[in-house]
Amino acid sequence: MDPITPFGRKWEYRHSMWMNWLFGPFLLTGFISFIYIGIRANKKKWLFYGAIYFILMAQYFFYFSSYDINSTTFDISIMLVLGGWVFAWVHAFQARREYLRILAVRIMNDPLQPTPPYRVKTHYPFPTEEQPLTNIKNVKKVKAELPVADKKVPFTFNVNKASLQEIASHPYIGNILARQIVQIRERVGAFQSLEHLIEETNMKPHIIAKAKPYITFGNVKKQAPTSAEPSNDEEQNKPNSSPSRKKESISGRIVDY
């Protein structure tokens, strides 16, 4: 059985001695257990249950001498006190968990209280010194968060010069889009602007909104025209030889036979 508090089971057994009052027959001393933890934990509900158990005990012992053993009143009285005694044991084990946790939180949050030097792990949700709670029922499991060192921090990169690994390591890009960017960059040479990048890669709007501040293009040079595609000046300066050739083919002496 796992410990309820970080102080271990020995500490819990030592602070559960109040349950020994339940061994008193017919709730003769059982009500003292709930009055004790109600005062220690400042819980009115346990004081209320202690008063109820006292009434169940008192009605039996107060009228015990005047009861007729064969009467229905005696049967009801003994059923009430026996049922209350059994229920008090079940109730005490349920209250024990809450009482020990309240007591442990009070010790951990009070600098004047001597804290046990040992600590053990517990599977129950338990607050730390930085989370003081007045009501132990408000304790909830805290979702585990990744350490700050494990979280990827966005960084600025040149989309025309960065490697595949560098682009893929960006938290807003990912591996698939990084491969697509590198493949298109090898085909077009370089991205001229953000609009050019979006047009070629078909980036989704939410990715654009996140990654836009971190993408740079550097000094992009326009591609020089290739030899296969002559410029307009060359086309204008190029002599138009086709008409002269036609004239040469047409010119000549016509001979009639």
UniProtKB/TrEMBL annotation:
The keyword Oxidoreductase does not apply. InterPro entries: RuvA_2-like. It comes from Sutcliffiella cohnii. The keyword Transmembrane applies. This is Helix-hairpin-helix domain-containing protein. Keywords: Membrane, Transmembrane, Transmembrane helix. The chain crosses the membrane at residues 20-39, 46-64, 76-93. Residues 220-257 are annotated as: Disordered. Gene3D superfamilies: AF1531-like domain. It comes from the Bacteria. Residues 245-257 have a biased composition (Basic and acidic residues). Pfam families: HHH_3.
